[in-house]
Amino acid sequence: MTKDRVIRAMARDGRVRVITCHTTELVRELARRHHTWPVVTAALGRTASIAAMMATLLKNHESITVKIEGDGPIGYLVVEALPSGDVRGYPGNPHVHLPPNSQGKLDVGGAIGRGHLYVVRDTGLRSYYTSSSELVSGEIADDFTYYFATSEQTPSAVGAGVLVGTDNVPIVAGGFLIQLMPGHTEEDAAYVEERLAGVPSVTGFLEKYPAADALLFKLFPDAHILAMQDVRFRCKCSYSRLRDVLLSLGAKELRDIRDEQGQAELTCHFCGNVYTFGREALDEMIAEIEQQGVSAP
Question: Name one GO cellular component term (predicted).
Answer without folding.
Answer: cytoplasm
